[in-house]
From TrEMBL:
UniProt gene name: tilS
Catalytic activity: cytidine(34) in tRNA(Ile2) + L-lysine + ATP = lysidine(34) in tRNA(Ile2) + AMP + diphosphate + H(+)
Family recorded in the similarity comment: Belongs to the tRNA(Ile)-lysidine synthase family.
Protein name: tRNA(Ile)-lysidine synthase
Location of the tRNA(Ile)-lysidine/2-thiocytidine synthase N-terminal domain: 31-204
Keyword Thylakoid included in the entry's annotation: no
Length: 326
């Protein structure tokens, strides 16, 4: 470990956030998802300090997406920083970014696959991620702007096994300050300055404009909105999960839900029951538009045909919604 730095407010805030999150590990080993940027580097430093004090083994996994010139060097420097902080083990994973949804979505898929592989290899139970309150505010604002529904507006969850976001209540400025106060040199992703990315435009243009128009505290207000929506969503999810076993019926090649019993519930619960049926039976996640298309077979039925989803067909027959593999 390097010489102990002066305990500044920013360093104290990051350490306190990690200390509060450590009980969720239950003493099991964990990994920090480290990019080398200020958020994840501040998290790594706090996790190394608090993990050592608590007797919890914490390592790091660095993912090189190979999408920028010099990315291998960036990954190696992040790994060296993790080792210098005392994290162990430290893994570097080179991934191939390809697949649907654009480069950002493909990179995220590859990154989380690398995290899962690293957990299996090391026996880690959790990966700690460096998302901050600013990231949460941007996520909520993106969801609002795209009309993505409550799941998007609920934003990121602090505790979303196997992922844990200890810094979700801290501002980005605090992680930058924590790195500076500890003599750590973070990598600043040049893509964060490219305004063709929606998040960058939100960060540099939209949020400052909202602050100017409404007043300070917009990011905090958006994060509070996420917390409130999460509470409501969790209650509705629990209600749907309680109802599902009593409603689900076997159907040839799939599962069925009785229409009358579905219609007796509010739409928010019906939507969750539909998504649960598809996820549990076919392992697929429905978008809001797909969920609403199925829900119309319950609430707006006028003899129309079924709904074709990726790998699943849903029809209304004999007073039931029948979900079968397509």
């Amino acid at each position: 470990m390097p010489d102990r730095p002066r305990l500044t407010p920013a360093v104290a805030a990051t350490r306190s956030a990690v200390r509060d999150a450590l009980p969720l590990l239950g003493g099991a080993p964990a990994l920090v998802g480290l990019s080398g940027g200020p958020d994840s580097l501040a998290l790594a430093a706090a996790a190394a300090f608090e993990g050592s004090r608590a007797g919890v083994r914490i390592g790091a996994v660095v993912v090189d997406h190979g999408m920028q010139e010099g990315s291998a060097g960036v990954a190696d420097r992040a790994a060296a920083a993790a080792r210098a902080l005392g994290l162990d083990p430290v893994l570097v994973r080179r991934v191939r970014v390809e697949g649907p949804g654009g480069p950002e979505a493909a990179a995220r898929t590859a990154r989380y696959a690398a995290f899962a592989e690293a957990m299996r290899e090391t026996g880690a139970a959790r990966v700690l991620l460096g998302h901050t309150l600013d990231d949460q505010a941007e996520t909520v604002l993106l969801g609002l702007g795209r009309g993505s529904g409550p799941d998007a507006i609920a934003g990121m969850r602090r505790d979303a096994p196997p992922y844990l976001r200890p810094l979700l209540a801290l501002r980005r400025a605090e992680t930058v300050a924590a790195c500076a106060d500890q003599g750590l040199e973070p990598w600043h992703d040049p893509m964060n300055a490219v305004d063709r990315h929606p998040r960058v435009r939100l960060r540099t243009t939209a949020l400052p404009a909202l602050e100017a128009a409404i007043g300070p505290g917009v990011a905090e207000a958006l994060a509070r909105t996420a917390d409130q929506v999460q509470e409501d969503a969790e209650a509705l999810d629990a209600l749907a999960a309680e109802l599902a076993p009593d409603l689900a019926e076997l159907a040839e090649g799939g599962i069925a839900l009785p229409v009358a019993a579905l219609a007796a519930n509010p739409p928010a619960v019906v939507h969750r029951l539909i998504r649960l049926a598809v996820e549990d039976e076919f392992g697929r996640t429905l978008s809001r538009a797909q969920t609403l298309a199925v829900a119309r077979l319950v609430f707006d039925w006028h003899g129309q045909g079924g709904v074709d989803l990726p790998g699943v067909r849903v029809v209304r027959a004999g007073g039931r919604l029948e979900f079968t593999g397509a």
